[in-house]
Amino acid sequence: MIERLIASSPYLGLFVALLLGSLGAPIPEEIPIVTAGVMAHEQVVHWWLALAVCVVGVLSGDLVLYGAGRRWGARVLERPLVRCLLDPARQQELAARYRRHGVLIVFAARHVMGLRAAAFVTAGIVRLPFWKFLAADGVAIGYGVPLNFGIAYLFAERLQALVTEVHRAERWLAVAVLVAGAGWLYYELRRRGHRALRPAGGTSGPPPPGPDGSLSPR
To answer: What are residue 215's DSSP bridge partners?
Structure first.
């Protein structure tokens, strides 16, 4: 769906993909940014407009997360299950850490996939000042997004060749997995077959010695 939207309306598609990725959809934001860089290299879109769309899309998603945490986060913290895992004392400790190091936390989380959403919502929950959140997030976006976009733009041809090699490697990996799975299945069937053919009485051999050292009858 997103691919068709990008193909039909590139700027809107890129913005929607970045916004959904920021809000938790399984779309890493690096993918739309790299896609935008490649499209700009192929002159499908204007590079300056595509870059601006990427920056606005990423920042919009981050602001939505921060606003959601600031608006509804306190209600989440009041739920019984959350209070069991995060009691008032720990809530105060977390808030104190964000007040002391909130700018660094937001800045670092912007570069860690999977932690961005949680960190930005938490920043809103503990009411990190908006200007601090915007400054830290804006600085991280200000060089991170153009860097990814620029690399994709400058090395688009090599990137496409790399994608081709990755797809080829994936095919060989799939073949290797199938062969390994078939080998494991064959081994398991043979092992179970041998076990089924063993005598019910167990292994043959001399009986164990009795207490006085003599051989006890079977």
So the answer is: 209
